[in-house]
């Protein structure tokens, strides 16, 4: 392996650790986070900040996140920035991991938090070289093993061999709700989000439009954006049928983001179609992919995906460009794009489909993340449009 600087063998108590790719390529580094070993699909994210939001984004379930920003952890973590209850990344890979957190919002150091949550990591890795490889060869499985050097690569390769393959795992079942949950609007931006069983007594009596979020691993920022626009929000499990959704008397339905290969979600596609013919509908990321499939489209795996806060997307109607936050490894195939849908947004980097609307139904979907979390707020108008659509329907009682 090419070394860009002399290998460190210890750094304040860290032990040697390795990251091994499927093809046997070994990156040597030092242990970080919780001790042990881990395996997952190795991907990279180009954000300069937002490491906590990324590690808690359910769409990263089963993945080892390479942070391309060379210095990670310096502003600590805090409870408000979690994008879900758990920590979802299967592991983290960084160049320099800060042990000191310096920020007025910090409640805990990033590494202590990783240890507490059992997330295995590796630091002092040549993340630039790793990212170049992933860009050239595509993403794949990899394993991190602590207390190991390149001579121990076989142990890592065994972990990889025992993995069923990223696309074969139903990661959504590990992160999404299995029961209806009400989302409390109280202090949504000031305190950690509160989710309570929807059968419990109503906690609030807001009279805003009601959105049912079909949960495949939704990010809290999405829920906050809905609440901030005066909407009432209920999470429903992915297998909730039409009757269960209708019983909630929603004004609209949102299909959430989520981890894994959208092809694994085939059993739920008929339900996506049925509900989107009935309610104003919005889809984000995995939700975008599910909606495209529901109308006859297909998805495919990108070489190395789009993960970062600086993905330029062009609106096909007014030609404006927004910088968007993205985190996806699959996309909708152009050749399969259904006639009844219209492409509304395109990723300028590689011309992939970034958004569409139905030609006749109020169905809109984006492959990017208008909620950012982390990332720029260029695209939040997507929520404004949805709120307007639902407010009209709510007022008219249709
Ligand atoms: N953020 C997401 O919803 C990701 C969708 C899907 N799992 C993908 O990787 O493409």
From TrEMBL:
<keyword id="KW-0028">Amino-acid biosynthesis</keyword>
<comment type="pathway">
    <text>Pyrimidine metabolism; UMP biosynthesis via de novo pathway; (S)-dihydroorotate from bicarbonate: step 1/3.</text>
</comment>
<comment type="subunit">
    <text>Composed of two chains; the small (or glutamine) chain promotes the hydrolysis of glutamine to ammonia, which is used by the large (or ammonia) chain to synthesize carbamoyl phosphate. Tetramer of heterodimers (alpha,beta)4.</text>
</comment>
<dbReference type="InterPro" id="IPR029062">
    <property type="entry name" value="Class_I_gatase-like"/>
</dbReference>
<dbReference type="InterPro" id="IPR006274">
    <property type="entry name" value="CarbamoylP_synth_ssu"/>
</dbReference>
<comment type="function">
    <text>Small subunit of the glutamine-dependent carbamoyl phosphate synthetase (CPSase). CPSase catalyzes the formation of carbamoyl phosphate from the ammonia moiety of glutamine, carbonate, and phosphate donated by ATP, constituting the first step of 2 biosynthetic pathways, one leading to arginine and/or urea and the other to pyrimidine nucleotides. The small subunit (glutamine amidotransferase) binds and cleaves glutamine to supply the large subunit with the substrate ammonia.</text>
</comment>
<feature type="active site">
    <location>
        <position position="369"/>
    </location>
</feature>
<keyword id="KW-0055">Arginine biosynthesis</keyword>
<comment type="pathway">
    <text>Amino-acid biosynthesis; L-arginine biosynthesis; carbamoyl phosphate from bicarbonate: step 1/1.</text>
</comment>
<feature type="binding site">
    <location>
        <position position="327"/>
    </location>
    <ligand>
        <name>L-glutamine</name>
    </ligand>
</feature>
<feature type="binding site">
    <location>
        <position position="286"/>
    </location>
    <ligand>
        <name>L-glutamine</name>
    </ligand>
</feature>
<keyword id="KW-0315">Glutamine amidotransferase</keyword>
<keyword id="KW-0665">Pyrimidine biosynthesis</keyword>
<dbReference type="InterPro" id="IPR036480">
    <property type="entry name" value="CarbP_synth_ssu_N_sf"/>
</dbReference>
<dbReference type="InterPro" id="IPR035686">
    <property type="entry name" value="CPSase_GATase1"/>
</dbReference>
<feature type="binding site">
    <location>
        <position position="59"/>
    </location>
    <ligand>
        <name>L-glutamine</name>
    </ligand>
</feature>
<feature type="active site" description="Nucleophile">
    <location>
        <position position="285"/>
    </location>
</feature>
<feature type="active site">
    <location>
        <position position="371"/>
    </location>
</feature>
<feature type="binding site">
    <location>
        <position position="329"/>
    </location>
    <ligand>
        <name>L-glutamine</name>
    </ligand>
</feature>
<dbReference type="GO" id="GO:0004088">
    <property type="term" value="F:carbamoyl-phosphate synthase (glutamine-hydrolyzing) activity"/>
</dbReference>
<dbReference type="InterPro" id="IPR050472">
    <property type="entry name" value="Anth_synth/Amidotransfase"/>
</dbReference>
<feature type="binding site">
    <location>
        <position position="258"/>
    </location>
    <ligand>
        <name>L-glutamine</name>
    </ligand>
</feature>
<feature type="binding site">
    <location>
        <position position="330"/>
    </location>
    <ligand>
        <name>L-glutamine</name>
    </ligand>
</feature>
<feature type="binding site">
    <location>
        <position position="260"/>
    </location>
    <ligand>
        <name>L-glutamine</name>
    </ligand>
</feature>
<dbReference type="Pfam" id="PF00117">
    <property type="entry name" value="GATase"/>
</dbReference>
<feature type="binding site">
    <location>
        <position position="289"/>
    </location>
    <ligand>
        <name>L-glutamine</name>
    </ligand>
</feature>
<protein>
    <recommendedName>
        <fullName>Carbamoyl phosphate synthase small chain</fullName>
        <ecNumber>6.3.5.5</ecNumber>
    </recommendedName>
</protein>
<feature type="region of interest" description="CPSase">
    <location>
        <begin position="1"/>
        <end position="209"/>
    </location>
</feature>
<dbReference type="Pfam" id="PF00988">
    <property type="entry name" value="CPSase_sm_chain"/>
</dbReference>
<feature type="domain" description="Carbamoyl-phosphate synthase small subunit N-terminal">
    <location>
        <begin position="15"/>
        <end position="145"/>
    </location>
</feature>
<keyword id="KW-0067">ATP-binding</keyword>
<dbReference type="InterPro" id="IPR002474">
    <property type="entry name" value="CarbamoylP_synth_ssu_N"/>
</dbReference>
<comment type="similarity">
    <text>Belongs to the CarA family.</text>
</comment>
<keyword id="KW-0547">Nucleotide-binding</keyword>
<keyword id="KW-0436">Ligase</keyword>
<dbReference type="InterPro" id="IPR017926">
    <property type="entry name" value="GATASE"/>
</dbReference>
């Amino acid at each position: 392996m090419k070394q860009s600087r002399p290998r460190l063998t210890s750094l304040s108590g860290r032990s040697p650790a390795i990251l091994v790719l499927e093809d046997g390529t070994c990156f040597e580094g030092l242990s970080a986070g919780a001790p042990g070993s881990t395996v997952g699909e190795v991907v990279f994210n180009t954000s300069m900040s937002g490491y906590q939001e990324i590690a808690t984004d359910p769409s990263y379930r089963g993945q080892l996140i390479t942070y391309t920003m060379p210095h990670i952890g310096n502003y600590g973590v805090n409870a408000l920035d979690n994008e879900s209850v758990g920590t979802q990344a299967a592991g983290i890979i960084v160049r320099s991991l800060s042990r000191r957190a310096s920020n007025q919002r910090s409640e805990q150091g990033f590494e202590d938090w990783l240890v507490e949550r059992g997330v295995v990591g590796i630091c002092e890795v040549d993340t630039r070289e790793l990212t170049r490889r992933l860009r050239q060869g595509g993403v794949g499985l990899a394993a991190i093993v602590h207390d190991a050097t390149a001579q121990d690569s076989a142990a890592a390769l065994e972990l990889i061999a025992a993995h069923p393959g990223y696309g074969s795992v139903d990661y959504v079942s590990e992160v999404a709700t299995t029961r209806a949950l009400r989302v409390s609007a109280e202090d949504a931006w000031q305190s950690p989000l509160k989710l309570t069983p929807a059968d419990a007594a109503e906690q609030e009596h807001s009279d805003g439009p009601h959105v049912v979020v079909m949960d495949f691993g939704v990010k809290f920022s999405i829920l906050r954006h809905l609440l901030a626009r005066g909407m009432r929000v209920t999470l429903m499990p992915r297998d909730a049928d039409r009757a269960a959704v209708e019983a909630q008397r929603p004004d609209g339905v949102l299909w959430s983001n989520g981890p894994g290969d959208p092809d694994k979600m085939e059993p739920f596609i008929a339900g996506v179609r049925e509900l989107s013919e009935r309610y104003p509908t919005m889809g984000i990321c995995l939700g975008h992919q599910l909606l495209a499939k529901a109308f006859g489209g297909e998805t495919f795996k990108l070489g190395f995906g789009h993960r970062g806060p600086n993905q330029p997307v062009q609106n096909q109607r007014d030609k404006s460009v927004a910088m968007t936050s993205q985190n996806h490894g699959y996309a909708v195939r152009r050749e399969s794009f259904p006639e009844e849908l219209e492409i509304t947004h395109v990723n300028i980097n590689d011309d992939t489909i970034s958004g569409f609307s139905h030609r006749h139904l109020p169905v809109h979907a984006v492959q990017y993340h208008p909620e950012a979390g982390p990332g720029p707020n260029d695209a939040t108008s997507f929520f404004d449009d949805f709120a307007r659509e639902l407010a009209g329907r709510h007022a008219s009682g249709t």
